Amino acid sequence: MVKAIIIKETGGPEVMSYETVDLGDPGPGEVRVKHAAVGLNYIDVYHRSGLYPVQPPLVLGLEGAGTVEALGEGVTQFKEGDRVAYANPPLGAYSQARNMPWHRLVKLPDSIDFQTGAAMMLQGMTVEYLIRRTFRVETGQTVLFHAAAGGVGLIACQWLKKLGATVIGTAGSPEKMALAKAHGADHMINYREENFVERVKELTGGKGVPVVYDGVGKDTWEGSLDCLSPRGLLVNFGNASGGISQFNPGTLAAKGSLYLTRPTLMTYTASREDLVESATALFDVVTSGAVKIEVNQTYPLAEAVQAHRDLEGRKTTGSTVFLP
């Protein structure tokens, strides 16, 4: 028996409850992981609210780090005591322990502690595919990254600087702007006080940028398109302000033969090979010191309701982890 956060219906943070659940032995091809830390991510909100369809009752969460406790039949790739981390389906990370398919786990380097591991996998591999595969950022390019002081944003600012890019970021307060600049953003725009489209055009001499990374969604959608140079790419990878309900492809033509993609980490790490390659690239930039993971909030797992309220209220910065 273990403690876990359960939802029995979708809705607001109040639908989550901290309960005891039965955890059986790992099945064939599975590994039981005892969590030392569990990651909090905005996709958890999408699952809890029903924006991304799920079938309750279920345990939330896609990211965790801990120790292998038991092996199911046929698993030879791991051994008991191995340090592991993951950021993949199936859901179930909001728990003290869980069973996980072995091929969705990666070994966590000894130099990376469990809290960092749980804080970095989903957000860090998201940054990896965004800037290395969705649009391969090259030295000298200028990019716009919304919500630059969030967990994904702070990792992106650092990694983009390592690649030699100029980073324009947006945030909603002077404190968040300063935080993003301290992590590598060259220019910050307070979207609550400034017109970010006008500022981007000003900073780029009217040219715009070749790529916009937008995890905000509804509130920034139109403006993001207007920040792009002709044939630029809008990477809409999240919906923190709500989903985009209507889209006319003709808009892309009118604004300069633009491109649009809606990628997901799950697609970019669907194969074992892609998962390991993405995680390895992330581990390399973290262990080298080029990217530092900021765990700026920790909550007991039992306080998941408050954690979700703080996340949705944009009261958090950097990464957040639960301590089971």
TrEMBL record:
The keyword NADP applies. One of its GO terms (cellular component) is cytosol. Its EC number is 1.6.5.5. GO terms for molecular function: mRNA 3'-UTR AU-rich region binding; NADPH binding; quinone reductase (NADPH) activity; zinc ion binding. Residues 11-322 form the Enoyl reductase (ER) domain. Keywords: NADP, Oxidoreductase. This is NADPH2:quinone reductase. It comes from Limibacillus halophilus.
